[in-house]
Amino acid sequence: MKKLTLVVISLFFYITAFSQEDPNLKDKPIIETDVEFDNGSQIVINPLNSELIRNLDLLGRVWGFLKYYHPEVAKGKYNWDYELFRILPKYTQAKNNIDRDNILLNWIVSFGETDICDACEDSLTKEAVILPDLNWITNSQLLPELRDKLLYIKKNRFQGEHFYIEQAPGIGNPLFNNENPYSSMVYPDKGYRLLALYRYWNMIQYFFPYKYLMDKDWNNTLKEYLPRFIDAKNELEYELAAIEIIGDLKDTHANIYKGHDKIEEQVVGKLWPPVFVKFVENKLVVTDYFKPEMQSTIGLKLGDVITKINGRLVETIVKEKSKIYPASNYPTRLRNMAEHLLRSNSNFITIEYLRNGTEKTMKLPLYEKEEVNAYRWFRPDPNGKSFKFLRDDIGYVTLKNIKNEDIDSIKKQFKNTKGIIVDIRNYPSTYVVYTLGAFFVEKTTPFVEFMISDITNPGKFIKVPEVSVKVKEAEENYNGKLVVLVNEITQSQAEYTAMAFRANKSTTIIGSTTAGADGNISRITLPGDIVTCISGIGVYYPDGTETQRVGIVPDITVLPTIKGIREGRDELIEKAIEVIDND
């Protein structure tokens, strides 16, 4: 009898444990406890026609608007990705526009009433540089009830700690929170691919400060890419659709940094050439050997111009592949393309090249990246010295390996020189905007202003007070000539540093168009664990002059020449010395 009682008691506790709420789930956000679509969206979308594309375009706008504006959604009370999958089957079967709009209206109502926001009205246009682009609400010929509901939510939008968006402390670039990357889905299904497009389009719509600088109207982009994302037949087509819409931003920061395996494998190739090439005088030119000791065995010389790859003109390949190389401007696109053009999955490629006017052909062997110590953009030199004398009266500083402890030595050793050349044809290894920048100005000088998003009004952007290079009272400043070297490799923090050095009125910037992507980056994840970024804040000179896409415009344009490369000369340094001597 005792044994039976024990069994009954055990069974009672077993039943009780599973009939009550799991305490481990009690405080977890809904995106962790709502698991209905963890293994797939279960979405079937009929063949696309103009009407369905138009309806899906509207749904993407409404879904994103509610995500950032609706108080109950913004609090994280719903798994907003999965709410999309719940509405889609019914929505795609709408009989007409009235039926469609009623489905949307009932969907919105199901998330609860929105309280009146007394503080929202005054802050809508105050100090706005850019206002939210929500004209689609009134221009879409929606049912009056749906239109009014959306406008009411706009007027009484969410205020407070947002579940999906915040700003980086002290900086202001957007941080996209609680976005599931769905890492296990290397080739997401149709529902998840549609989600990727909706997620990305709305992030750009509301939080990309340079949307107004695009070549295309972002409002047309959703319709354009719906077939590309929904009908992507495999992982490669999905990745290509993603990188092409990213490229529409014309932002060098906006690329795919993870989750582009098939592009790497099938389009670029896993093997590397033994030489570094770049575009010089609009031609693909050998400019370095990854391993100098391989020089005698490679068969190529510095200054050789590659004209064909596997029988195809370089110009033709560049034209065909341009779309999958996002960049703010053309020189930077060529920079990014150059490192891939000689890559392949084959052990050899056939190249045709010109040497001193003579046409030659060779089979170029390719290697694993580690075998040739391949680098990107510029040769790293982590253990090298960051400064030296070019002459007794001219100092040279490269920022690619500068350290904080170098700053005082640079100031002491170069204080009485005639000129200093600062080379930023690289990416600074240490942040020197203020520590070194203050050495070159006579007084505290504004050099930059920012534009950031107002996350309490998604889509609104405001300017913040300008930032200055501040002079230290006890420090003696530099009186010689400062020359700064830049080119297409100068990007982001490197461009920002050049702006700070330009605060010195006697600074001369020499070189060519920089990458045109300044400002702190914001990370974006898309289904399939695709990781991309955007320039998250707007960066301008104090007078409002653009830097995005334009880059740092040199005072004196100097471009390397094929002749100079063959002769082993650095023509920018030569010009910098000339400028210092002529001062």
Task: Identify the notable features of this structure and list them briefly.
583 residues; alpha+beta; six-stranded mixed sheet; 21 helices
Give a topology summary.
Layout: H1 2-19, H2 30-33, H3 50-69, H4 71-74, H5 80-91, H6 97-109, H7 120-123, E1 128-130, H8 135-139, H9 144-155, E2 165-167, E3 174-176, H10 190-207, H11 221-230, H12 235-247, E4 256-258, H13 261-268, E5 275-280, E6 283-289, H14 295-298, E7 305-309, E8 312-313, H15 314-321, H16 330-341, E9 348-355, E10 358-365, H17 369-372, E11 387-391, E12 394-398, H18 406-414, E13 419-423, E14 445-454, E15 460-469, E16 481-486, H19 493-501, E17 508-511, E18 521-526, E19 530-535, E20 538-540, E21 556-557, H20 562-566, H21 571-582
Helix pairs in contact: 3-6, 3-10, 3-11, 10-11, 11-12, 12-13
